[in-house]
Amino acid sequence: MSREAQVRFCERPGVRLPRATHLVVLCSTRQEAEEALAYVKEVLAELKLSLHETKTRLVRFDEGFEFLGFRFRQWRIGVRPKAIEKFKERVRTLTQRQQGRNVEAVISDLSPVIRGWARYFGVAEVAAVFHRLDGWIRMRIRSFRSKRRRRTDNRRYHNRHLARWGLLSLLECRPELRLSYMRVARS
Question: What is the pTM of this model?
Fold first, then answer.
C-alpha cells in the first residue's frame, strides 16, 4: 500500500481507524454500513488484500456480535463462552493432579495466566463470570493439593491458605478501567 493510500484510509473525515487486522465498523444506518463496507473493500483491494467473506457481515447493533473474545450485546459487553472454555482448558492443563510438583510451583505458573486473562477481559462487565471462575480455580488448586476432588477438601484448604500460597483472584487483578456502552452513549 502506498503511503498516500494509507493516509487516505486512516484519515478519512469522521473515521478513527487503528491499524489492525481485525476491525468493526459501526454506522447509523444500513446504507452507511454498506458504503463503509464497499470503501473498506476498495482500500484493501489497493493493498492486494481481501476481507474474509465468512467473517464479514452486516448486523444490527441490537442483535449483538462477537469480536476478539468479547461478546457485544445490547448495552452490555461480556466474554465469549469459547474464550472462557479456552481459559479453563489452560487452567486444567496447569493444574493436572498427577504432576511431580508442589502447589506453590503450580500457582506460580498459573499466576501470569490469571493476571493476563483478568487484565484483558476485566474491562467488560464480568464480575459474575470472574466470581464463578475464581471459585472454580480454587477448587482445581484444592483438588491438585489433595490429589482428589471432594467437598470436604474445601473446608480443609480455606481461601486464606490459597492466598498465602500465592493464588491470585481474577476479581483482584481486574483493571480499574471499565468499558460501558452507557458512558460511550453519553459522550
Answer: 0.71
The candidate with the shortest Cα–Cα distance to 108, out of 95, 122, 123, is 95
**Can you say whether the dihedral through the CA atoms of 56, 60, 63, 69 is positive or negative?**
positive
Rounded-to-integer distance, Cα 32 and Cα 28, Å: 7
Nearest CA to 95 out of 133, 144, 142 is that of 144
Per-residue pLDDT of the chain (187 residues; tens, 9 = 90+): 444 554 455 555 565 555 556 777 777 888 888 888 888 888 878 877 778 788 788 888 777 888 888 888 877 888 899 999 999 999 999 988 777 788 888 888 999 999 999 999 988 888 899 999 998 998 888 888 776 666 665 566 667 777 888 888 888 888 776 666 555 444 4
Map out the domains of the chain as residue ranges: 3-58, 81-173
CA distance 119 to 176: 9
Which residues touch 144 (CB under 8 Å, ≥6 apart)?
95, 96, 97, 99, 103, 106
